[in-house]
């Protein structure tokens, strides 16, 4: 194994949540008078922390989102997760292989700790991630594309950045991993390969990842 730590993004990499959350985000922003299509939500917000939504809306319209925006949005998302959420095909197999080979891994997500845990529980991934393997943008000052979250995760796991591989499916996440000095494997399933062009390697089938990582 060429890496000492594999850092997974969560949404779209471990749990198939991006279609759900971006559909709901586009609908809620439109409902509040900020017309947004599903495609625009993917383009502007996929991979980013919630503060990015607030920042872009304020920048573009001069209007702030309601104070309870995050709570209402997450309530809708969690309810939809209970109905619809599934693990990304192949994700369980990768986790099984890393665990069997004794390779350290963790998740570093723009989502809140609550969102990560709710998603993992519904998708059946919670047994793979104890508290010591879960890192959120809530833990650092700046979310992706800043490198802070990935550097924080590596430091907490006791691994140098150059010994880490990041698994990402968003341009913001790829930028963050590159800025952190880590190799990044771009998961081009929902996102086009062109938008992940900064990645060290690209792949479209999660079942291929273990071989790509050299396990």
Plain-language structure description:
The protein has 215 residues and is an alpha/beta fold. The chain is 45% helix and 12% strand. It contains 9 helices and 6 strands, in the order E-H-H-H-H-H-E-H-E-H-E-H-E-E-H. It has helices spanning 18-31, 38-45, 50-61, 69-84, 91-101, 113-123, 148-157, 171-179, 209-213, and strands spanning 5-8, 104-109, 134-136, 164-168, 183-187, 201-203. Strands 3-2-1-4-5-6 form a 6-stranded parallel β-sheet, with helices on both faces. Helix 8 links the parallel strand 4 and strand 5 (183-187). Helix 4 (69-84) runs parallel beside helix 6. The longest helix is centred in the middle third of the chain and has 16 residues, at 69-84. 41% of the residues are buried.
Concise account of the structure shown:
It contains 9 helices and 6 strands; from the N terminus they run βαααααβαβαβαββα. It has 215 residues and is an alpha/beta fold.
Secondary-structure map:
Layout: E1 5-8, H1 18-31, H2 38-45, H3 50-61, H4 69-84, H5 91-101, E2 104-109, H6 113-123, E3 134-136, H7 148-157, E4 164-168, H8 171-179, E5 183-187, E6 201-203, H9 209-213
Helix pairs in contact: 1-2, 1-4, 4-6
